[in-house]
Amino acid sequence: MILEALSPIKGDYHLQNYEETYQNFRWEEAEKNFSWYQSGKVNMGYEAVDRHAEGFRKNKVALYYRSNDRLEKYTFKELKEWSNKVGNVFKEYGVKKGDRLFVFMPRSPELYFAILGGVKIGAIVGPLFEAFMEGAVRDRLLDSGAEYLVTTPELLQRVPEKDLPDLKTIFIVGKDVQEKEKYVDFNKRVEKASKNLDIVWVDREDGLILHYTSGSTGKPKGVLHIHNAMIQQYMTAKWVLDLKEEDIYWCTADPGWVTGTSYGIFGPWLVGATNVVIGGRFSPENWYKALEDFGVTVWYSAPTAFRMLMGAGDEIVNRYDLTSLRHILSVGEPLNPEVIRWGMKVFGLRIHDTWWMTETGAHIVCNYPSMEIRPGSMGKPIPGVEVAIVDNQGKELPPYQMGNLAIKKGWPSMMRQIWNNPEKYASYFLPNGWYISGDSAYMDEDGYFWFQGRIDDVILTSGERVGPFEVESKLVEHPAVAEAGIIGKPDPIRGEIIKAFISLRDGYEPSEQLKEEIQAFVKKGLAAHAAPREIEFLDKLPKTRSGKIMRRVLKSWELGLPTGDLSMMED
Ligand code: WTA
C-alpha cells in the first residue's frame, strides 16, 4: 500500500519528536498556557485577539483582506477595537450570553468582526455559508431559534422572515440601509459605538459556535462547540499548522464550514499568527497570486482545490514566485498520492493531510512536519487523543482490519451538544466510551491511519459535506418529481459529485430541459453545491418493503457492482 514514504524534513518544528510527545503529553499541562487557568473565567475572543492587542503583538498585522474591490489590513489592536465596537452594538440591541446570533455574509473584514464581537459578549455564533439559499437558511435559523442575524442587503432576500418568529433583529451590512422594524444599519451603529467593551467572561463549557452539518438522515444538525475548544485549537495550530511568529498563514476555507472557524479564525489567532483572507471566487491565477503577493508561508486547503490547480497545468504555477511557502496542509476528503507527488514537483513541499470533522472541533489524525508521510494515509493521532479502529460493539480491531474510525470520548474540542437533539448526540457514542466518526478506515502496523470511505450515505463533494436527505427533500418539492434518491458518484476532480435518480409524476416525460429545470430548482432552493450534477430518470426507485429508498442499490447500479443482499427490497 505504501507507495513511497516521504521522509520528514529537517527543521525547527513545534513538534520535534512525535512519539515522545504522544507518550508524555497531558492536556492539563497545555491549559496552563492560558490566563484563564488562574481565573477560571474565559472568553475565546479575549484569548484570540485582545491578549495579543495588549502585548508585544499589538501592532502586528492580524488580518490581510483582499477582494475585487478592497485591500485592507488590521493589526491585533485594530481587530480588538473593531470587534469591541461590534460587540457593543450587539449588546445595545439586547444580545446576551447564550443567544444564537447568526452571520450570513460573504467573506469580508466585517464577517470576522461580527463573529468575534458576538463571541466576546458570550453569544453562540452560527456562521452560514454565503451560498445557502432560502430553504437551507430557513432550516438552520428555525432549528437554532436564532434571534439575531447579521447579513447583507443581497443575502437578506434569502431570509424568509415570515417563517422565523424568533428572529428579532437583523443587522444589515451595506450602504444606505433603511432602519425600520427589525432592520439595523450595522455600519452606522458600529461607527458610533465605543472601542471599549466589557467582555463577557464565561465558563469553559459555555457555548461558542454552532455549525450545521449533514448526516445521512434528517435535516442538518447543529453541532455545538464551547470555549474550551481553544486548548486543542491552540496546540494543533502549533503541532500541525506549525505556526510561528513570522508566519503568514492562509486558510482557504469559508467560516461557514468548521475549517474556516477552527483554523481560519481561532487556531491561528490563538497563537498570534497573521491571517490572510481572500474574497471572491476560486481561480488558479487568483490563488497563486494571493500566495505570491502576501508571501504566504503556511497554506491550508483541500484536495479538490489542489486537483483543480493541478489540472490547470504547471505552466501557470511556474509564472508565480511561491518560494515563501514552507508548509502545506489539506483537509476534507481523501488526499490522492498523485496530488502529493504533484505538490513535491511544483512547490518542492510535501502536502500534509489532516483528518477531523465538524464534530471533533479540531484536528484528530494528522501528518506532522517532523514525521514521515506515507502518501494516502491521514497520519497519526494528535498527542492527548486516543484513536482506534473498532467494530460496531466498540471492540478494538488489529492492524489492517477495516472498521469504524473511533475516538476516545473527552478530547478538549469535542462537540458538546447536537442542538435540541440529545438522542442524536448520544447516538454518536458507544457505551464503552468510543465516539464513532461514521468513517471507515484501517491502521497499519506502525500506527498510521488509512481512510476507506464513509459508512453512511453522506456525500463529500468538493470537500463539502452534503446530506442526501436534504437534497432529496428539496427534489420532491419539484412538481415533476415523484421520488428521488441521491448518491455520491466518484469524480476525478471533485472527489464525488451528486447524482440523482428520479421517478416522475404522471404526466411528466423525461427530457434534458426537465433535468436542467430540476437542477436550477435545487440551486435556487438549497445551494449550488447541493444540486445534482447528474440526473437519471427511472420508472421506479429501489425501495425497502417499508418504503425507504435504497441508496446502496442505486450506488451499486451506478458503479456496476454486485448489489448484495436484496432481501429487504420490495418486489
Ligand atoms: C471527510 C471537515 C479523508 C470524512 C473538517 C469526515 C476526510 C468528513 C479527511 C468531515 C481526510 C475529512 N481524508 N476524508 N483527511 N478529512 N474527511 O464535517 O469523511 O465537513 O467524516 O469536516 O470529511 O467533514 P466536515
From TrEMBL:
GO terms for cellular component: cytosol. Signal peptide: none annotated. Its EC number is 6.2.1.1. Pfam families: AMP-binding, AMP-binding_C. Gene3D superfamilies: 3.30.300.30, N-terminal domain of ligase-like. The gene is acsA. The keyword Ligase applies. Belongs to the ATP-dependent AMP-binding enzyme family. It is an enzyme of class 6 (ligase). One of its GO terms (biological process) is acetyl-CoA biosynthetic process. Residues 50-418 form the AMP-dependent synthetase/ligase domain. GO terms for molecular function: acetate-CoA ligase activity; ATP binding. Residues 470-548 form the AMP-binding enzyme C-terminal domain. This is acetate--CoA ligase. Keywords: Acetylation, ATP-binding, Ligase, Nucleotide-binding. PANTHER family: ACETYL-COENZYME A SYNTHETASE (PTHR24095), ACETYL-COENZYME A SYNTHETASE 1 (PTHR24095:SF14).
